[in-house]
Write a structure and sequence with these properties.
This protein is of the alpha/beta class. The chain contains 13 helices and ten strands. Bound molecules: zinc ion.
């Protein structure tokens, strides 16, 4: 195991952070506005999100760089600011952490599908490589390839991220099938865990897509299929739409009540995805205390 991961995990389960997108919306990010661009224009508000998580007890916080790969930035006419957006993202989270939390960098999907030929494997790999290098140069401690629906895209991102020499977490979204235990492309937790372990992921995870109750079974199945540490970040339930915005209805205590079972099921890193807030992290911390 990578020495950083060993150091983090030896005392027990590690608390990560909650959502950034929904927290930025709460601070004025408009519908359809590109969150990562706020690293350049609203750095103080981005920093507030990181600070709130650290104060709530996050031992790891991510960066506001989920969409900062060349392909997705291109959709927002911001590809020429790629290096800047990623670098500032890392700087903002490091300043927010003040040494009280580790900073891992978020790398989300490109939003383009390999399967339909919208994008080639070479283009995906190049885009992830460019982002991973920018994040690594800015001084991040690990890379988190997250919210992946396509195992092939996830493996390309992993291979690109690995070239930095940093530990790499790869986290898939299981939100499809009648039991919500498959990715959009039909991949099961067993298939994902095996393929990602074989491809060298340091940590394997599941995030987003559904509320925390559904993650217990997914976590158990990942655990049975791999000995790698597991990274788990569920949503705060399923959203209802209120005036065009997703509203998440699970309460922090409800969410945190599932955490002991998640740990029993093999989770090593625990936090939240869409709709979770600093008070969710505080609730997890109380449950683990
Ligand atoms: Zn999410």
């Amino acid at each position: 195991m990578h020495p950083l991961l060993e150091k983090l995990l030896s005392p027990g389960p590690v608390i990560t952070d909650g959502a950034w997108g929904t927290e930025l919306q709460a601070r004025g990010l408009g519908l359809g506005e590109f969150p990562d661009a706020w690293n350049l224009t609203q750095a103080d508000r981005v920093a507030e999100v990181g600070q709130a998580y650290v104060q709530a007890g996050s031992q790891i916080i991510l960066t506001n760089t989920f969409g900062a790969n060349r392909i997705r930035l291109g959709d927002h006419s911001a590809a020429d600011r790629l290096a800047e957006i990623n670098t500032r993202g890392v700087e903002i989270s490091r300043q927010a952490a003040q040494g009280h939390a580790h900073v891992f960098a978020s790398m989300g999907p490109t939003g383009k599908l390999l399967m339909t030929g919208e994008v080639t494997a070479d283009q995906l790999r190049a885009a992830f490589s460019e982002q991973a290098q920018a994040l690594a140069q800015a001084g991040v401690e690990a890379l988190v390839v997250e919210t992946m629906s396509d195992l092939e895209e996830a493996k390309l991102a992993l291979s690109a991220a690995h070239e930095t020499g940093l530990p790499v977490i790869v986290s898939m979204v299981f939100d499809s099938g009648k039991n919500k235990d498959r990715t959009m492309m039909g991949t099961t937790p067993e298939q994902a865990a095996q393929a990602l372990a074989e491809a060298g992921a340091d940590v394997i995870g599941a995030n987003c897509g559904q509320g925390i109750a559904g993650f217990i079974g997914i976590c158990q199945r990942l655990r049975a299929a791999t000995d790698r540490p597991l990274w788990i970040k569920p949503n705060a339930g399923l959203p209802t739409m209120v005036e065009g915005r997703a509203q998440y209805n699970t309460r922090p205590e409800e969410f945190a009540a599932y955490v002991p079972e998640l740990i029993k099921s093999g989770a090593s890193f625990i936090g939240g995805c869409c709709g979770t807030r600093p008070d969710f992290i505080a609730a997890i911390r109380r449950v683990l205390a």
